[in-house]
Amino acid sequence: MDELQAKLQAELDKFKAVEKEYHKAVSQRQVLDGQLHENTGVKQELDLLKDDGEVYKLIGPVLVKQDLTEAKQNVAKRMDYIKGELKRFDDLIASLDSKQEQYKEKLSKLQVQFQQEQVKAAVKA
């Protein structure tokens, strides 16, 4: 019975670790989603500018003039990168979700076994 209890605790610890990793990934994905939204707004603003429009980039405490085409390319690259990271986190979250379900099933089976062992021990006593 102690062996079963130890196995149950080990599986519970694994489940908690996966659950923690899952919540961390969801949180990081939300940050990326916010960044994508912000960059989408920047892209829309840049698209409103005429070709001779002026764009400034904040570097430290200084505003530095930047070429409009270069600014648009930088935002597009940043958005592509963020979209790639979002895809990676979506895959990670799906994988962790699957692992959580597997641990839930294992834990459920082990709990049933543990309860059966407790009943057997109580009957013998």
UniProtKB/TrEMBL annotation:
Belongs to the prefoldin subunit beta family. One of its GO terms (cellular component) is cytoplasm. CDD domains: Prefoldin_6. This is Probable prefoldin subunit 6. Signal peptide: none annotated. The keyword S-adenosyl-L-methionine does not apply. Heterohexamer of two PFD-alpha type and four PFD-beta type subunits. Keywords: Chaperone, Coiled coil. GO terms for molecular function: protein-folding chaperone binding; unfolded protein binding. PANTHER family: PREFOLDIN SUBUNIT 6. Pfam families: Prefoldin_2. Residues 93-120 form a coiled coil. SUPFAM superfamilies: Prefoldin. InterPro entries: PFD_beta-like (IPR002777), Prefoldin (IPR009053). The keyword Iron does not apply. One of its GO terms (biological process) is protein folding.
